[in-house]
Amino acid sequence: MSAVAQARRARDAAREIVTSYRGPRLRIMEVCGTHTHEIFRLGLRALLPPGIELISGPGCPVCVTPVSFIDEACYLARECGVTLCTFGDLLRVPGTAGSLADARSQGARVEIVYTPLDAVAYAAAHPAEEVVFLSVGFETTTPASALAIKKAAAQALTNFSLLAANKTMDAAYLAMRDSCDAYLYPGHVCAITGARVPRALTSRGISGVVAGFTASELLTALAVILRRSSAAPFFVNCYPRVVTEEGSPAARQLLETYFTPVDAEWRGLGVLPQSGLVPAPAYAEFDARRRYTIPPQEGRTNPACRCGDILRGACTPADCPLYGKTCTPEHPVGACMVSREGTCAAWYQYRGTSAASSGKEDLHG
Ligand code: SF4
């Protein structure tokens, strides 16, 4: 049998396990924005039997970044006259008194960059400007911010710093443990941390599997959860072609060298101990919060927005009175509608498609 035929047979077997499941009710939480999007795009929700609920948790870095961070960035741009360098998604996240896009339209200097190193290059090319990079992301993207600090230090740049809201996922796994029966752990994050991190959670009663991103990988991961759900707390690495037990020591070394853990606020989850990363003391000159005096920010959301509840798995976008009405991807009211990986944005993109039937050829081809 060819490798393609073998893979197809495995996928079909996994799909049969999923669709024929008639066991106890199960809540499965994905904590990866790419999983959220791919599950919709592939139409996997439409395959789930009654009693299996897929919950989108705090897996989108833009979504979990609190409003106060946007307010801090707006303060730096408006009151301190710095040039902000940011990924495009953050531009449209509403802050208490408007978004960064609003600030830019009012004259603030805000540059879109594609990598943290672009921000370093911008600072080097514009020595008369104070440049602050808005650094958000989980273990997958934070190493690139570490490289930015490394390069800025090597170039002895004195006009570059980071406003950091980077986060690590392990505290979120613990915080959300009562919201689900099993996790679909994020493949990209686990490629850095290693499978050992989620595996260790079984000793605390937390179950889950690491999943990849293809239809076959996601179906296999779901099938494993359904098969193992009645057993003791379990962990299975269903993405072994990318995730090793040890992960990436080189990436973790970058994080440990250039960042230090701090308590951090997550939208909807509150402050989680030691879940944030800011520039390490040895690189304090690259920490925007040390370089500038930023007063405490209000961090106020639209009171009708339910992003916090959605990120906790307590409701779905359909429960938000603004969903699809005043809140759309063109005019987002909350962070979950901004990024392509946000839960509200995914629901909106695949609305009216029977829980996203587009892409089903991936399951049947
Ligand atoms: S639909 Fe918009 S306002 Fe409602 S929870 Fe989602 S992002 Fe917030």
From TrEMBL:
It comes from the Bacteria. The keyword Metal-binding applies. InterPro entries: Hyd_form_HypD (IPR002780), HypD_1 (IPR042243), HypD_2_sf (IPR042244). Keywords: Iron, Metal-binding. One of its GO terms (biological process) is protein maturation. Belongs to the HypD family. This is Hydrogenase formation protein HypD.
